[in-house]
Amino acid sequence: MRILLATSExxxxxxxxxxxxxxxxxxxxxxxxxxxxLASERLRRVRVRELRVPLLLxxxxxxxxxxxxxxxxxxxxPIPAFSDLLLFFRRFGQGAPAVAYTHHMDVGFRxxxxxxxxxxxxxxxxxxxAGAVIVSTRATAATFRHxxxxxxxxxxxLERVREEPKFDEFxxxxxxxxxxxxxxxxxxxxAARLPDVRLLVAGTGYAEAPLRAxxxxxxxxxxxxLGPVPEDALWSLYARSHVLAQPSLEMEFFxxxxxxxxxxxxxxxxxxxPGPVEVLGDAGLVVPRGDEAALAAAIGRLRDGEALRxxxxxxxxxxxxxxxWDRCIDRHLEIYAGLVQ
Length: 341
Prior knowledge:
Blueprint: E1 2-7, H1 16-30, E2 34-39, E3 45-48, E4 51-54, H2 60-68, E5 72-77, H3 83-88, E6 98-103, H4 113-127, E7 132-135, H5 138-141, E8 149-151, E9 171-175, H6 184-192, E10 198-202, H7 208-217, E11 223-227, H8 231-240, E12 243-246, H9 256-263, E13 267-271, H10 274-280, E14 285-287, H11 292-304, H12 306-320, H13 325-340
Parallel strand pairs: 1-2, 1-5, 5-6, 6-7, 7-8, 9-10, 9-12, 10-11, 12-13, 13-14
Antiparallel strand pairs: 3-4
């Protein structure tokens, strides 16, 4: 098949959607398919508070040619002014490419609720124009009214798992973009309650400066901002850390970093968002989102409870072993093939 994979970001950008796009692209090509990648981050963009809006329409002529050359459009979103416009302007009829829409999250910024609420409703209506909607959890599938919703979990690179000793100091790791919805501010406040616990923050983003300022204001000496971390070093951090914290407040529908930490025997402590809770199962601890006291208490339980920590680490590694990229890639291709027949 000729596949146009349209997404927000691609490697080396360090984001969940970029990593999914990279693994799918490599997997499709390894199976003999022709893949063209269209990334909105490579278009000129404007920022509206927390939203980064690509300027798709000025590039529409070339984008339209690329769509026309494809058998199937593998569309990932939502990406305001990108995935929605591609669905809105998609061509129908004989010779038009099939469209499979993979929904990664809802755009749900609380400070922009007056925009993001109606946008989410409109995006779901536009998704009805796709031949299939692909989601990563059953929790997300339940939010769609579409005759062809397919649940395809993302995978983990089990061959990347490292066997390394844990840090001597009890260590909590956060991996992700530094944006307000990720809840890193909650994690920093939790760390202030745990002066004997080391916190490593791996990632970057436009909220990094205010988060560093918050750490200074809290007097945190046990928190380190590592910036963007290369993959090899990241897998080492997973192996050596005791806990993987995912304190997201919204817009977290799966949790790739959580799954990678699980595979490495790192115990997740996550907020109670339905998708990540489904992926986690009974292999970690769940706390109410935004509750710094509960987050600190959960981390403290793992610090003080070696038997509990060992049991959950073993469960986490075993559970992560069921999520493979080969299965994810093959299921996407099966869905695409069904649409182009």
